[in-house]
Design brief:
With 247 residues, the chain is of the alpha/beta class. It has helices at residues 17-28, 40-48, 67-81, 104-132, 144-147, 153-173, 198-207, 216-227; strands at 8-11, 32-37, 56-61, 86-89, 135-140, 178-185, 238-241. It has a single domain, classed as Rossmann fold.
C-alpha cells in the first residue's frame, strides 16, 4: 500500500516545475491526481508524461484568479470522485522589479495569482473537507516569504501572506479534522529560474550550504509527506526545504 493510495488530490500549477513533480510523486504514491494549469496543451502534455504510474492523473484547465474556474473544477472533481482529500496550492508567478520601478500591474498580477488564487482554491475545498471531517491543504510559500528578497516586493508579500493563511486556517480548520501546512522552498531548478544568467545561478548555488540548487522532486517529497497520514499531527507548520540557505 502506497502512502496516498486512492486519495483525491488537486495540484494547481501542475504542468511544469514543482507542480508537475508533485503530481508525479503523488501518483507514484497511489493518488488520484487532478493536475490543473492554465493551458490545455500544457495540461495534456503533463498528463501524458505521468502515464504508467500506480495512481491516476487527470487534467483540468484552471485559472486560480477566476473563482468560477476554481468552483467548476471543484464541482467536477466532486461529481467524479465524491471527495477531495488534498489540495496543493502550487500555482504561482513572478514579475520582479525594485520598489521604485514596480508597476501597479506587476504588483496586482502577482497578488492575484499567488495570494488571491490560494484563497480561492482553499475556500472552494474547505466546505468539502470539513463535511468529510478530513483533508489536507498545502500552500506554497518560499524562503522569500520568511526573509524577503531584493526586487520581489510583490512575490515576498504573497509568500508572507500565504504563511498567514496557513497559520489562520490551521486554527480554523484543525478542529474539523483538516490540516493546513506550508512548504517554503529555497532556490529550485525550475523553468522560473531559466531566465536568470548563469552567473546569478552560480551565486545562488554558492549561498546554499549544500552548494547546489534544489530539485523539484525534493519539494514534491515534502508535499507527499505532509499530505500523508505520516504527518497526521503536523498542522500550521512552515517546512523550509532550502538546503540550509537561511542557516
Amino acid at each position: 500500500m502506497t502512502r496516498l493510495q486512492n486519495k483525491v488530490c488537486i495540484v494547481t500549477g501542475g504542468a511544469q516545475g514543482i507542480g508537475l513533480a508533485t503530481a508525479r510523486k503523488f501518483a507514484a504514491e497511489g493518488a488520484i491526481v487532478v493536475l490543473s494549469d492554465l493551458r490545455q496543451s500544457a495540461v495534456d502534455e503533463a498528463v501524458a508524461g505521468c502515464a504508467g504510474l500506480p495512481g491516476q492523473v487527470q487534467g483540468e484547465v484552471l485559472d486560480v484568479t477566476q473563482r468560477e474556474s476554481v468552483d467548476r473544477v471543484v464541482q467536477k472533481v466532486m461529481a467524479t470522485h465524491g471527495r477531495i482529500d488534498v489540495l496543493v496550492n502550487n500555482a504561482g508567478i513572478t514579475q520582479d522589479a525594485r520598489l521604485q520601478k514596480m508597476s501597479e500591474a506587476q504588483f496586482d498580477n502577482v497578488i492575484d495569482v499567488n495570494l488571491k488564487g490560494v484563497f480561492h482554491c482553499a475556500q472552494a475545498v474547505a466546505d468539502v473537507m470539513v463535511e468529510q471531517g478530513s483533508g489536507v491543504i498545502l500552500n506554497a510559500s518560499s524562503v522569500v516569504g520568511i526573509y524577503g528578497n531584493f526586487g520581489q516586493t510583490n512575490y515576498a508579500a504573497t509568500k508572507f501572506g500565504v504563511i498567514g493563511f496557513t497559520k489562520t486556517w490551521s486554527r480554523e480548520l484543525g478542529p474539523k479534522g483538516v490540516r493546513v501546512n506550508a512548504v517554503a522552498p529555497g532556490f529550485i531548478a525550475t523553468p522560473i529560474l531559466s531566465s536568470m544568467p548563469e552567473k546569478v545561478i552560480e551565486d545562488l548555488e554558492h549561498r546554499v550550504p549544500l552548494k547546489r540548487l534544489g530539485r523539484p522532486e525534493e519539494i514534491a517529497n515534502a508535499y507527499a509527506f505532509l499530505a500523508s497520514d505520516e504527518a497526521s499531527y503536523i498542522n500550521g507548520a512552515v517546512l523550509e526545504v532550502s538546503g540550509g540557505l537561511t542557516v
